[in-house]
Write a structure and sequence with these properties.
alpha/beta, three-stranded antiparallel beta sheet, 19 helices, globular
Length: 617
């Protein structure tokens, strides 16, 4: 009886044990069957293509060989799939090359429906996992790892059954088409089990028999960053309070019209309310969040200040022209100052700070063009709004530049021209993201405009500004793609993107880098979790991408490829048609052997105890 109890305890322990598997430098070749749709004489039928994936150490390239040729969707799907794999495995995929081969006997209709299969195949190659050939999947890949809807489910199910599949994985919510329940129909017609899956991790369980587990990461506050951001927030707050008192006095003792005075005072009251919100964040020690709020307030306040001057001078256009000329000189001086400071940096964090400062001032410079255009078109109110934005942007650039050399990272020597290659890679990456957005119907016009600005900055050798712009734009597209995939599970999405950001921050800090903007955006995302879930998701995505950028900068500076950040914890799952049965059988055998050994040891001890007791008597 005691022997049976020991066996049961050990068996329960065994089937729950987690297995650590390291990322392979050169993965195994993975082969999957991928269903597609072929049109023949205005009718559609399901066909099967062979997908082969091989991952190995490299430089982040994706090589795709297709026969017959596929549409551009496949290439963009592969890039999105790589991004998803990077998130799931907590791995810098820029250090791996992917080789993807697709073969089909039929000229299948193009589309991104192989995205989920590409992601799963890449994971299997990197982790050296075997995939069950009798489990087939169809589905697009969303940037958050969820599996998106596809067409021709019934036709693809039939093709899967004809190729000896026993399980057919489809996107969540697609098992019913009109009056047809595909699960019932496929089981009855072809003895095919159709299962809806929400994301890549869930699908991997059915295809490999393993479940990936990643621990939640806690982001710890950095004392040096907290002090610096407190100083910035405090300066913003004092400056705004002083300006409000000054503007109120000017309005009260001015000779502007009653309607103009009333309008300015109403706007000023709304600004005061927003200042109180910003102060609450300051008191809560969320200093970056407070600074961001104060910045928004500062822009609106600057608009009122400039509008007042315009009213006071009888709406004379020279007021606007003088302001624009003054801002042009400030921008020019700030740009020169940034170029001088580039020679003083001594850490990777300083590279990021320079990038932020340069991005802010170039944004101001670009807005200045719009301001002049509005001025010459007699759109004075819009020109005054532009002036307000430009002036505060210039102040923000100066504020960031003031904290240079305040961090204790590893000391470096750095030439900003080293960012050129990274910028070119990110341009290529962003083009793919924009293309995927176009395929899924996401608005990309703003991203295309930002891409043009980044390319212009790159041509002008403003490498840090170009890099910052590319990361921001990629984050915005990623956010739009994430929104496209949300299925009323906002809390789960927040949890995922938050943990992605936390892991990326941890990875940067492991390399002795302080990802200042990533930490700041992370704080902002946390403060917005319960009040503005969409903005929270957006800022966590920003945080993740800026932390990854810090890691990439570290790679450039050190000239080496870091080892994988962490081993991936996976555990066998008891699913039909998986290899878990083998592990189960091995577990039982080991458990029986150990239980027998333990029983023998107990028996020997008892015998010796009895012999010793008799001798004592």
């Amino acid at each position: 009886m005691k022997m049976n109890k020991a066996l049961v305890i050990f068996f329960v322990f065994l089937i729950n044990i987690k297995i650590a598997i390291a990322i392979e430098k050169d993965g195994n070749l993975v082969t999957l069957l991928v269903p597609a749709i072929e049109r023949v004489n205005d009718t559609e039928r399901g066909v099967m293509a062979i997908l082969q994936i091989y991952a190995k150490e490299g430089n982040g390239h994706i090589f795709i060989d297709t026969m017959p040729l596929t549409e551009i969707d496949t290439q963009t799907s592969a890039r999105i799939a790589r991004e998803v794999v990077s998130s799931i495995l907590d791995l810098d995929m820029s250090n791996y090359d992917l080789f993807i081969v697709i073969r089909s006997d039929s000229p299948a209709v193009g589309g991104p429906s192989a995205g989920a299969a590409i992601a799963i195949g890449t994971i299997a190659s990197l982790l050296n996992l075997s995939l069950n050939p009798r489990v087939i999947i169809t589905g697009t890949i969303n940037i958050d790892g969820t599996i998106g809807s596809v067409g021709g489910i019934l036709e693809k199910a039939r093709a899967a059954a004809e190729h000896n599949a026993t399980i057919f994985l489809i996107p969540y919510g697609q098992s019913k088409i009109q009056d047809i329940d595909i699960k019932e129909y496929a089981k009855l017609k072809w003895n095919l089990t159709v299962i809806e899956v929400k994301d890549v991790v869930e699908a991997l369980k059915y295809m490999s028999g393993y479940e990936i587990r990643l621990k939640d990461i806690e982001v710890k506050e950095k004392e040096d960053l907290r002090k610096i951001m407190k100083g910035i927030a405090e300066n913003f707050m004092k400056d705004i309070e002083k300006r409000i008192v000054n503007l109120e006095n000017k309005i009260n003792y001015s000779r502007i019209s009653y309607s103009e005075e009333k309008y300015l005072k109403e706007l000023l009251e709304s600004i005061k309310k927003r200042i109180e919100e910003a102060k609450k964040y300051y008191e809560d020690k969320a200093y970056y969040t407070a600074s961001s709020y104060f910045l928004g307030v500062g822009i609106d306040l600057a608009y009122l200040e400039n509008l007042f001057e315009f009213y006071k001078e009888g709406k004379k256009e020279w007021v606007i022209e003088n302001n624009l000329n003054s801002l042009e000189e400030k921008i020019r001086n700030q740009i020169n100052k940034i170029e001088d400071v580039k020679n003083e940096i001594d850490s990777i964090t300083d590279v990021e700070i320079i990038s932020i400062a340069e991005d802010r001032i170039i944004d101001a410079k670009n807005t200045l063009r719009e301001a002049w255009k509005n001025y010459y078109n007699y759109n004075y109110d819009e020109a005054i709004r532009n002036i307000a934005y430009i002036s505060e942007r210039e102040k923000t650039s100066e504020a960031w530049l003031s904290i240079i050399n305040n961090f204790t990272d590893e000391k470096i020597n750095f030439d900003f021209s080293e960012l050129e290659g990274l910028c070119k890679n990110k341009i290529s990456e962003l083009i793919s993201f924009i293309g995927y957005g176009d395929v899924l119907g996401v608005e990309t016009s703003k991203a295309k405009e930002s891409l043009s600005i980044a390319q212009r900055n790159l041509n002008e050798k403003k490498y840090s500004a170009a890099l910052f712009n590319l990361i921001t734009t990629k984050s915005e597209i990623e956010f739009a793609l994430t929104l496209k995939s949300i299925r009323n599970d906002t809390k789960e999405i927040i949890k995922k993107v938050k943990n992605d950001a936390a892991r990326s921050i941890r990875n940067a800090e492991t390399l002795n880098v302080s990802p200042i903007l990533a930490l700041s955006y992370y704080e902002y995302g946390e403060k917005l979790e319960n009040t503005n879930s969409m903005a929270s998701i957006q800022y966590f995505i920003y945080s993740k991408n800026y932390a990854k950028n810090a890691v990439e900068l570290s790679n450039i500076v050190r000239g080496e490829t870091p080892k994988p950040y962490s081993k991936i914890e996976i555990k066998p799952v008891n699913l039909e048609e998986t290899s878990c049965k083998l592990y189960l059988a091995i577990g039982i055998m080991i458990g029986i052997v150990l239980a027998i050994i333990i029983s023998i040891l107990i028996f020997v001890v008892r015998v010796r105890f009895k012999i010793k007791k008799k001798r004592t008597k």
